[in-house]
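Issue 218. Parser rejects a valid record. Input:
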Amino acid sequence: MIQTLLTVALGGALGASGRYLVNVGLPRLFGHGFPFATMFVNIAGSFAMGLIVVVLAHKSGTRFAPFLMTGILGGFTTFSAFSLDAAKLYEAGQLGTAAGYVIGTVVLALAALFAGMAFARGFFA
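Output the parser choked on:
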């Protein structure tokens, strides 16, 4: 139990560090007007989750799930930040932008999850 908790904590630190780097880097590329960084990590994290869940299942690697899925991806993805970003856009009167952000993130994150699963399944077909 303690060992699993430590692996989740290590994974969380790595994932949160990756998210921080994305949060610093993407606004430099695209500007600060739209929460591209949060959207990116949620979509990339969903793709990675789809990929990892299939790979771990096919390789009997579920023992790595706490580190990879709960730790790294849990620290990397930011659905609480996503919710706050959507609320800020809504409260700023940017209803269309808020709706586009919410719908775009959810649809693309789900699509990325399925793409990750399909990509991984391509290796095991």
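Fixed in the parser; the record now loads. The chain is about 85% helix and 0% strand.
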